[in-house]
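User: Please predict the structure of the protein below. I'd like the answer in structure-token form so I can feed it into my own downstream comparison script.

Assistant: Understood. Taking the following sequence of 351 residues as input:
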Amino acid sequence: MVSIEQNVWGVTPEGEAIVLYTLRNDKGAEVQISNFGAAIVSAKMPDREGRMADVVLGYKHPEGYFFDGAAAGKSVGRCANRIAYGRMTIEGKEYRLEINNGVNHLHGGTKNFANRLWESRVETNRVVMALTSEDGDQGYPGELYVEAAFDFDDDNSLEITYMAKTTKTTVVNLTNHVYFNLAGEASGSVLDHELRLNCSKVLEMNERQIPTGRLLDVEGTPQDFREFRPFRPGIDSEFNHIRDFRGYDHPFVIDGWKPDILGEVGTLREKKSGRTVTVLTSQPSVMIYTGNWLSGGCPETKSGGRYEDYAGVAMECQNYPDAVNHPEFPSPLLHPGEFYCQKIVFRFGTC
């Protein structure tokens, strides 16, 4: 059985309570979730000897989560990832969105879902967060109602279900921006972690971190993770702008993806501790980001320090970046009367 505790962790600048939920299973593993940004704040998981460590990057104080550039552990939206030049056309009407990442719009804008307080409640053995995004919020059309449900079980699986409905056709692409370090959140670089992905193609990127529309075969490249390989050897490669991006920051296409079907993305492992996390999703791609810009911008960490670049890796299950401007990509549009529902599962284990 999973027990759920809730405590007031802090307050927003507006004086609203930030609640921290602790979901603990019979094995002593636990996940903590905050209603600020619908964020995964920690995940304490056993190594192969049963020793617990927090494997999720995060901050010491709740204020650290206010507008942090890394969006650590948080639920981002309306549209995760980038929209080129902040421009999109929906049903013949052009929309201009905030430019907040070079020449692009990123993660739904500065005041995106990651930087808001969600309404939250406990439903039996799950925590549900809810948010209403008004028509025109951050430039997006339609009033959007969103829920994020967090389930944790005795098999150390954390499942997130994102649901949404809209009053006007709009773009929806929700994901969680959790960073993992399976050796423990304060243990330094993840570049020697090994990753295996069920992905034989990666989107070709331009120098502005926008997909060109082409899919590249990963075979024989530094982005071939079809069998376990560490990040470090490929980090300086010129292939697909890896070096230009200071590391991996690329969307991989999940093999055999079918809409509304949960499929396996892959597994991250850390050999010394034996910890693993296997990822499943109903989304068509996974953004692998090796924390290339973590240093300097992060608030005080849970362990009282500062994260350096590559201190964690994010595996963000989502639609393709800039999909609204690529008719050949899976559509990110949600129409009135439709129901958006996407799942992400992080299944922790050992090897």
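That's the full token string. The chain has one domain: 3-350.
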